[in-house]
Amino acid sequence: MSQCGLCVLQCKTSSPFLSLRLDFFKSVKHGTKALAFVGVRMVPQLIPQAIPQAVPQAIPQVVPRAVAHSPEITPATPADVPLLLELIRELAEFEQLLHAVDATADSLGEALFGARPDCEAVVARVAGEAVGFALYFHNFSTFRARRGLYLEDLYVRPAMRGHGVGKALLLHLAGIAVQRGCARFEWAVLDWNQRAIDFYRSMGAVPMAEWTVFRVSGEALAALAQSAPTQGLIEGPTQGLTQGPIQGPTQGLIEGPAKSSEEQS
Question: Which of 154, 208, 213, 229 has a beta carbon 3.0–4.6 Å from 134's, enabling a disulfide?
Fold first, then answer.
């Protein structure tokens, strides 16, 4: 099992099977209903409206004209990991969730720049000074059979709020979403952060009010995984095994525990 920190599910509140789905999700021990977050989505049809001009081949660096110091937005590098961790902790403190942060420079660096990166990040700077960041990754739409862009976190330092840095970061990611052919661009916002909600609405994003987010994490996630049927699962150390589907014919492969050469002879 991959080292995931949580499992998140969504349930559409307008679904005729809502009560059944809610009962099922609530039956998962220690599973929680993420009431404090509102899902927000921007679909491709709306993204070009948010960007003042057509998206060129290169990712646009769009910022409001009224900004005195236009932010420079660049992809994060391994050297930015300590800075990103500092900004993440600042964001957590603002959201009153600092106690929930257990990320380290090593774990964040591995997630961003390891052999199989889990996410990407960009840093906004004004006059060479870091003023904000955005961290994102791809999700997937089964109905559209296309990936989407999910914004995990966007943060602007207090001194630069109201100067267009947040808008510049959001438009930058909208440009990435369009360039990569994403079906949608979405994120979550704390339901008490009305200033952010109003800002996102002004950008053409719409709240996904008909969806409820469920989350399983920590010990509850481990317990849920342990309750899964074990038939067919590989037992013992998995180090050195290839990841992904096995290529080529599978006839003759041993099912169950492998026998030693002595047992086979």
Answer: 154
